[in-house]
TrEMBL record:
Ranges of residues in domain Major facilitator superfamily (MFS) profile: 35-540
Keywords, in A-Z order: Membrane, Transmembrane, Transmembrane helix, Transport
Organism phylogeny: Eukaryota, Fungi, Dikarya, Ascomycota, Saccharomycotina
Gene Ontology terms: cellular component: membrane
Organism, as annotated: Wickerhamomyces pijperi (Yeast)
Subcellular location field: Membrane
Membrane topology of this protein: Multi-pass membrane protein
Segments traversing the membrane: 76-96, 108-125, 165-189, 209-229, 327-344, 388-407, 419-440, 446-470, 482-506, 512-531
GO molecular function: transmembrane transporter activity
Name of this protein: Major facilitator superfamily (MFS) profile domain-containing protein
Length: 575
């Protein structure tokens, strides 16, 4: 079955060939297709849930009656976004450390369960404070954003650039698919009269229906993850997984499929290289930095069983030392800035579209005038907004399937990132002038779709490049920590941005200078371009440290080979 699937993908790949010997994507025979698909199925419920809120959050806050004026709605919507990001900021780093200690899979399953509960609470919220609590709980329990990147990186291998590009493109593709589906769910199923036949529910809880569906999808993701997703932690993947064992037994007994050999079914293979840690507790393993010394080698085992454990203790590289490496540091800075302005755009564009059209009460003409007197929005409904956002998600799917592989085949990730981010200052500058088209709904929707489409193209292609750069350079034994730190830092951006810009947009709207908020995003786009000059895809660690680690590893490998040979252990040492 898998070979047939590979042949089909191979045919598709050949159709995109540049020459007879060059293809745009890696060899699928060595690509972990099955696990990437499973991770995608587990992950897809998150973007569906996240984007389902955007079409109706303006109307939800409006119905809660907490905002005194229409301009204040943006501020309270910003609070809902900020509290989610703030709780993520508090916990994501710790979820990353938790995943390094207990495994990627348990962390994912806890996150999915927490999300399902929090979305149900949001759907049945009767006032703003319950909605606020639901968003806080969601961010507190969901550390999956950090873990998904780690899962993909460890499945495809950090040294296989073509596999990495395709692996991280799958994350973006899943997000775009989820965005399309989530926007449709939120736009078409929210409100009291959105769906006939369920008035007994929607009359009392107008936003329960989309959230019940979201929680059900999260429950399905939980089941798929439990029974089919494999652990990828370099040590814990050898731990027996009873859920996968159960699924394998069902395959064999009911479907008559060939039994699979799992990592815990066979003797552990020992693989040591200059990039991989030499076993032992994850907290005592390190990569090169400053001083590399081997303090102790210990080989112990049971003579009768032939089992063996090997412990190599090396001076630990601190979390701060890892994060402060220029190659990683500027990647994190770039991701922070990117997250900041994309979050603001995604949060406040639907609100801008939902604002009433500002008209002169005497003449009925538009109040807004080019270039600096800008007020009001386009008076779109939740269905209009959901339709626009879902169309953008569909466009994003096309981008990831066709444009992303082409770009990654011909250009380095760093080049792609630096090129794509140049579009942000331009598109943000033009957003406030959409109000000048308010009298022409068809034209205004086309212009809005153009803005969202350009933003989608830029984000879909540029965002994965930062992940690829950071994942390639992050030490294997601290990758969960690095991802957790990144999500915590970007969560800080998502915490502060909606609060600060919520006030800014409310102030600008009240004073007929709505362009101020959007032009400030253009400024951040320029800052991102400036910091992009310092980004690098090379690890600039001291060469003496690298040489010391290489020599140290070679000595360790030779000693371990001799030990294995003497005790006739069943294992393979890769040097």
């Amino acid at each position: 079955m898998r070979s047939q699937f590979n042949r089909i993908l191979g045919n598709i790949t050949r159709s995109f060939s540049v020459t007879s010997t060059t293809t745009l994507v890696p060899d699928f025979s060595t690509f972990p297709i099955e696990q990437i698909i499973i991770i995608s199925l587990v992950r897809i419920s998150d973007p569906i849930a996240f984007t389902s809120l955007h079409p109706y959050v303006y109307y939800m806050v409006q119905e809660f009656g907490i905002a005194d004026t229409e301009a204040d709605i943006a501020r309270y919507v910003g609070y809902l976004s900020s509290v989610f990001a703030f709780s993520q900021f508090l916990t994501c780093y710790h979820w990353g450390r938790f995943a390094d200690r207990f495994g990627r899979k348990p962390t994912m399953m806890i996150g999915i369960t927490g999300s399902a509960i929090s979305w149900l609470i949001l759907g049945f919220a009767k006032n703003y404070y319950w909605a606020f609590f639901a968003r806080f709980l969601n961010g507190l329990l969901d550390g999956n954003v950090a873990i998904v990147s780690t899962l993909v990186a460890e499945n495809v291998g950090t040294k296989k650039k073509k596999h990495q590009a395709l692996g991280f493109a799958s994350i973006t593709l899943v997000w775009e698919i989820g965005s399309a589906v989530g926007s449709m769910i939120g736009g078409f199923l929210s409100g009291k009269n959105a769906v006939s036949g369920v008035e007994w529910l929607t009359d009392s809880f107008p936003y329960a229906l989309p959230n019940i569906i979201i929680s059900s999808l999260l429950g399905l993701s939980l089941v798929i993850g439990l029974f089919f997703m494999e652990e990828t932690h370099f040590q814990l993947k050898y731990r027996r997984d009873h859920f996968i064992d159960f699924a394998d037994n069902v395959r064999v007994k009911l479907l008559r499929l060939k039994p699979r050999e799992r990592a815990w079914h066979r003797p552990r293979l020992y693989s040591i290289s200059e990039e991989s840690p030499l076993l032992g507790d994850t907290d005592s393993i390190t990569s090169y930095k400053s001083q590399v010394t081997v303090d102790e080698y210990a080989v112990s085992g049971d003579e009768e069983s032939g089992s063996s454990s090997i412990s190599v203790e090396i001076v630990k590289e601190s979390s701060w030392e890892v994060l402060s490496k220029p190659a990683i540091f500027y990647g994190v800075v770039g991701d922070f800035i990117l997250t900041l302005h994309i979050t603001i755009n995604n949060q406040f564009l639907p609100i801008f579209l939902a604002y009433e059209i500002a008209r002169d009460p005497q003449t009925g003409s538009l109040i807004s005038h080019f270039p600096f007197h800008i007020q009001g929005g386009l008076s779109y409904s939740a269905q209009d907004i959901g339709e626009l956002l879902s169309m953008t998600g569909i466009l994003g799917i096309i981008i990831v399937v066709f444009i992303f592989p082409y770009a990654n085949h011909h250009y380095e990730p760093l080049t792609i990132y630096k090129t794509m981010i140049k579009a942000y200052p331009i598109i943000y500058t033009l957003v406030p002038y959409l109000t000048l088209l308010a009298n022409y709904k068809g034209l205004s929707m086309a212009a809005t779709l153009f803005h969202i489409s350009v933003k989608s193209i830029t984000s879909s292609v540029a965002s994965p490049q930062i992940l690829i750069l950071i994942q390639t350079l992050a030490p294997e034994n601290q990758r969960g920590m690095v991802n957790g730190a990144i999500i915590s830092i970007t969560a800080f951006a998502r915490t502060m941005a909606p609060i600060v810009w919520g006030y800014l947009f409310a102030f600008a709207e009240a004073n007929s200078i709505a362009w101020v908020g959007w032009w400030s995003l253009s400024l951040f786009g320029l800052v991102a371009i400036y910091f992009g000059r310092f980004l690098t895809d090379k690890d600039v660690a001291d060469e003496d440290d690298k040489a010391a680690l290489a020599e140290n590893t070679r000595s360790s490998n030779k000693m371990l080979q001799n030990t294995f040979k003497a005790r006739s252990l069943e294992g393979t040492l890769v040097i």
